[in-house]
Amino acid sequence: MCELLGMSANVPTDICFSFAGLVRRGGGTGPHRDGWGITFYENKGCRTFKDPQPSYESPIARLVSEYPIKSCAVVAHIRQANRGRVSLENTHPFTRELWGRHWTYAHNGQLRGYRGLETGSFRPVGETDSEKAFCWLLRSLAARYTETPRSWPQVFRHVAELSHELRRKGVFNMLLSDGRYLMAYCSTNLFWITRRAPFGKARLLDQDVEIDFRKQTTPNDVVTVIATQPLTGNETWQRIAPGDWRLFYLGERRV
Amino acid sequence: MCELLGMSANVPTDICFSFAGLVRRGGGTGPHRDGWGITFYENKGCRTFKDPQPSYESPIARLVSEYPIKSCAVVAHIRQANRGRVSLENTHPFTRELWGRHWTYAHNGQLRGYRGLETGSFRPVGETDSEKAFCWLLRSLAARYTETPRSWPQVFRHVAELSHELRRKGVFNMLLSDGRYLMAYCSTNLFWITRRAPFGKARLLDQDVEIDFRKQTTPNDVVTVIATQPLTGNETWQRIAPGDWRLFYLGERRV
Q: Is A47 within 8 Å of chain B by CB?
């Protein structure tokens, strides 16, 4: 299994604190030694840092943990390989363009019988079930909406229906973002928390690090973090029920 | 104008030395203050580091200059904005999937009358003439080869024909790679050099740094570097004539 991490915020916010917790699981406190990746959106643009090395040992992961890249939408993943060997092309997140926007996706779980999924012109580059499922999702969306859609929540509702189909093939925990919206689909484990004023302190479960959000935020900030398992011990994380999903837009829950 | 840098090698090779020369031009010795990016291929996978900040001041550029990421195909770019504002979505290189491979592209120059270029399902995310031209190239290739092509040099010959058309719209110096091949199309300025045994020393033009390639290579290594302007002063770089192009495969010239 892999670990997922997502963030949605109403002001550009860095994810150093949460990412520091996640990378510890990448071969440190967890068994996820087979690569990691993180995508930051800045308006319509995005950039991805990824490495097939364990995050715990990666100089690039150290840079990302320490260098505050501020973003309103982040998708991150650390991998324990099941389908597909350890290589850069099999390392999440995956990003593809659709309707003139970059779509970024990361998957936790394992699928059976995925090879027959039709992907049309969205051909996978690597060998993972995850990328294949992503290409199938995009192809299904492109077929349904030949023009740029007008109602985005409706698009994500359709993604949820497609995700139900994928979940029937195995385990499908998934994060998806177009840089504005962040969707979390839960097959087994996904938790989220929205932090807003009055901000308090938080303490990582995976290492002895505490943060005082009051020192890093303004009273209007709204920041939601989504993760496979709660990252902090002194806050209450909401669990998404298996087969359910959430949609966030600039930090606020929409669905 | 912008600066381009490409590398093609028969063994995974780091580009720290050449990139160190390039980043100095990003607001240091040159005027290219509007972002930079570099894409490294590792087999079919690739990863891109990019920043809308000047490379000269970027902590990410420092990481890339110092951390030896070894690759057989690299495309890099530093930008002086002309069309399209300074933002992440307008920062080169651009990568898109076609025929199950990642294609990476960077452009130096400026085009007129590019807005009418038909891009089909390859929609630009940003506003640059460069990305629009890339989407048009990919759409033209996808239309010509509906199945994965068998002769890759022929594909690049077709790209050269399309590039001639783009050159009629202004200045179009361009690097394109699928991770195996690296193509360089020259509109005004592009130089290349192939280094092989017996290796010697090289000295950067942009800062007082010398490298002894004998210490970093084996006798079978073949490494080609392509740049808008020669990066070293004590070696002989080949100039590509305006309207001409070169194709490299694992360090060796093919066209």
A: yes
| Orientation angle between helical segments A59-66 and A16-25, nearest 10 degrees | 150
**Average pLDDT value over all residues in chain A:** 92
Contacts of A236 (CB under 8 A, 6+ apart): A193
For the range A199-204, what are the long-range contacts, defined as Cβ-Cβ under 8 Å and sequence gap of 24 or more? A200/A235, A201/A234, A202/A17, A202/A232, A202/A234, A202/A235, A203/A232, A203/A233, A203/A234, A204/A17, A204/A20, A204/A21, A204/A24, A204/A231, A204/A232, A204/A233
Per-residue pLDDT reduced to its tens digit, B71-126: 999 999 988 777 778 899 999 999 999 999 999 999 999 999 999 999 999 999 99
What residues in B contact A121, CB-CB < 8 Å? Answer: 121, 142
- DSSP symbols for A128-195: -HHHHHHHHHHHHHHHH-SS--S-HHHHHHHHHHHHHHHHTTB--EEEEE-SSEEEEE-SS--EEEEE
Rounded CA separation B133/B112 (Å): 11
The conformational region for residue A142 under phi > 0 = left, psi -120 to 50 = alpha, else beta, is alpha
Q: Give A47→chain B minimum CA distance, Å.
A: 7
Distance between CA atoms of residues A229 and A72, nearest Å: 21
The pairs formed by A58-61 with CB atoms below 8 angstroms and a separation of 24 or more are A58/A23, A58/A26, A59/B63, A59/B67, A60/B63, A60/B67, A61/A19, A61/A23, A61/A26, A61/A36
Contact B90 A43 (CB under 8 A): no
For residue B67, list chain A residues with Cβ-Cβ distance below 8 A: 59-60
From the list A45, A49, A50, the residue facing B126 with the nearest CB is A45
DSSP B195: E
The structure tokens 């979940």 sit at A167
Whether B2 is catalytic is yes
CA distance to partner chain B, nearest, from residue A51 (Å): 8
Closest by Cβ to A88, choosing from B43, B122, B126: B43
The minimal CB distance from B125 to the residues A51, A90, A100 is found for: A100
What is the rounded CA–CA span in Å between residue A229 and residue A206?
A: 11
Residues 6+ apart with CB under 8 A from B207: B20, B21, B24, B29
**Whole-model pTM over 0.90:** yes
Closest residue in B to A48 (Cα) is B48
Mark yes or no for CB contact A43/B67 under 8 Å: no
Report the complex ipTM: 0.93
A122 touches chain B (CB under 8 A): yes
